[in-house]
Specification:
By secondary structure, the protein is of the alpha/beta class. It has helices at about 30-40, 55-60, 85-95, 120-130, 140-145, 170-185; strands spanning about 10-15, 20-25, 50-55, 100-105, 115, 135-140, 155-160, 195-205, 210-215, 230-235, 235-240, 245, 255-270. The strands form 2 sheets. The chain has a 10-stranded mixed sheet. Strands 9-10-11 form a 3-stranded antiparallel sheet, with no helix packed on it.
Length: about 280
């Protein structure tokens, strides 16, 4: 095994601007992004450059989410540190010239698709309107300490897709990224905008005690009300201490949590009148 086998794998297609990086395998047990990259390699580009990056090859080989720590909680990284620190540091250099970074993820939660951002700048809003995804999650900096990849690039969006045994979400992810590239005039095809979104502002994590078992009937993005039964620890029932919208429930939840906590804004208008956004 090569001594540099920990480094991200990168390939390019096209030249010039805009420069779009499509990142797969930030978590080594998520293979969806590679399906998207493989599908896009056959596209003929009208303009710009696509970079295809497999972020964490060693975790991919070992079929593990990460080796020492979550890569998507390691940015901007360190030149010396554990493998994820070094990967994040190296990725920052690779992504520094990108006009847009698309980080593709898969979740075990019952979410069809959701676009995740860390800020709502004018350039992020422009990108969201060209994505045919209704639900948008805005993660506030305090939730993960601003250590996500997309928080450290010029313009970044993470696309998250739930499990689907028929392969529908693989096809959906490929379709969504192709739609974005068409709308940016990078590949040929009709342009369709989607300006009305449902925004979920993620403001924290709902912590639960060790041994917690989630009650049946809870659903992602369906409001949990204060006092509602959310689960149990052995024979003790656990009730919600506040009202919130859960994101990443069930098998997709983070260790020690029921879910992420969000407040919902029913309509976010991300319209932009220009035919082709500059990013």
């Amino acid at each position: 095994m090569n001594k540099n086998n920990w480094q991200s794998i990168e390939s390019h297609q096209g030249t010039g601007t805009p420069r779009v990086s499509i990142v797969a395998g930030t978590h080594g047990d998520e293979l969806l992004g590679e399906c998207v990259i493989n599908a896009l390699k056959s596209e003929v580009l009208l303009r710009g450059c696509l970079s295809f990056i497999i972020a964490h090859p060693l975790a991919r080989i070992k079929k593990k989410r990460f080796i020492n720590q979550d890569l998507n909680r390691s940015f901007p990284g360190k030149q010396r540190g554990c493998i994820e620190d070094r990967l994040a540091f190296d990725l920052m250099k690779r992504l520094s010239s990108s006009d847009l970074v698309i980080d593709i993820h898969a979740t075990n939660s019952s979410i069809d698709s959701i676009a995740i951002v860390t800020k709502l700048t004018s350039s992020v809003r422009k990108i969201l309107q060209w994505l045919p995804i209704k639900n948008v999650a805005l993660i506030e900096p305090n939730v993960f300490g601003n250590k996500e990849m997309i928080g450290h690039v010029k313009t970044g969006v993470a696309l998250e897709y739930g499990p689907e045994k028929s392969g529908k979400n693989n096809r959906r992810a490929i379709s969504h990224v192709r739609a974005l590239l068409r709308n940016l005039s990078i590949i040929n095809g009709p342009k369709v905008i989607s300006t009305k979104k449902t925004l979920y502002r993620i403001y924290g994590q709902y912590k639960v005690p060790k041994g917690f078992i989630e009650t049946n009937g809870l659903k992602d993005m369906r409001r949990i009300r204060k006092g509602q039964l959310i689960g149990s620890v052995k024979t003790k029932k656990i009730y919600a201490k506040e009202s919130f919208y859960p994101i990443f429930l069930g098998k997709g939840r983070y260790n020690g949590t029921l879910s992420l906590k969000a407040q919902q804004e029913r309509i976010l208008d991300v319209s932009d009148k220009r035919k082709t956004p500059e990013i």
